[in-house]
Amino acid sequence: MTLTTSEIAKQLDGEVLGDPEARLTGFASADQAKPGDLTFADTAEYFTAAEASAATAVIAGKEFTSATKVIIRVANPRVAYAKAVALFFPEPEPAPGIHPTAVVAKSAQIDATAHIGPHCTIGERVKIGARAALLAGDHVGDDSVIGDGTKLFPNVTLYPRTQIGKRVRIHSSAVIGADGFGYVFDAGFHRKVPQIGHVVIGDDVEIGANSCVDRGALGATVIGRGTKIDNQVQVAHNVQTGEHCLLISQVGISGSTKLGSYVVIAGQAGLAGHLKIGNQVTIGAAAGVMTDIPDGAKYLGVPAQPDREFKRQVIAIQRLPDLIKRFAAWEKKMGGQ
């Protein structure tokens, strides 16, 4: 694809400094760029590297100018970067139709514009919306709903009655709607508690590879609109997330915990069950959350606590060796044993 700098600037709500008709054929990082490429810089250090590169043009903030490069100046270079990459590398759109190896129940309703790839299995009374795409080997259980423009990458499993919104992306080997981990101890063994709920996933959600969202024991497990879930994340039964949350790799959330909107949970953090996490909360990596967290708070550590308290404790621990030496010297001076 070839675009001029002025065409790109229009798409990015930016302005061109330099030749508005310079032709761009690709996007690359500064250290790999060649003539005809567009690159980006969001700091002075990156801008220096971009100027020294072979790139023809640079996306940069409004404070930058150059005598050697065409500059597309924008309000937010990282947002513009995401938009520009999508211009040069649009995601392929699978052709409408049902592959002959797919197994589709007669009662399923599949929009004519949807794509059903090889070896997919579509259960009874499933509804699949316009431009949805199931790429290969996907299993969709009975009575599930998949919204318009949603894409399931290969080998995704949706258990029965799963409800998926519009423009959702679910990556390979994710499992949505498996049994929650529910057992009750009875006469020396663990009796299974039947998990009879389902999963509801809002519009514009993305779920990473090998992640699991369990169905509710009763009622629904809910993933709010715009939430992004990384690879290898576990969301237990009856968890509810608000809108636009970020769950980073290897996060685990126990049953019936409720997250507000715009919550960020860093990698490997674990949350106990039946907690209430407020809006705009940030939880640090590998934290162990055992209590409710109010709106806007930042929590770190195990057990997780407000970030300032945790940092004070870390600083105090770092001082312990010196304090021990000073105490030993004082004890020796005072004749102690």
The gist of it:
This protein is an alpha/beta fold. Helices cover 17% and strands 28% of the residues.
Which regions are unreliable across 5 or more consecutive residues at pLDDT < 50? Answer: none
Strand content is: 25-35%
Terminal CA distance? 80 Å
For CATH, the homologous superfamily of one domain is named as: MurE/MurF, N-terminal domain
Walkthrough of the structure:
With 337 residues, this protein is α/β, with parallel strands linked by helices. The protein has a domain at 3-88: 3-Layer(aba) Sandwich (Udp-n-acetylmuramoylalanyl-d-glutamate--2,6- Diaminopimelate Ligase, Chain: A, domain 1), CATH 3.40.1390. It has four helices and 39 strands. Strands 8-11-14-17-20-25-28-30-33-36-38-39 form a twelve-stranded mixed sheet, covered by helices on one side. The radius of gyration is 26 Å and the shape is flat. The chain starts with a strand and ends with a helix. The mean pLDDT is 96.
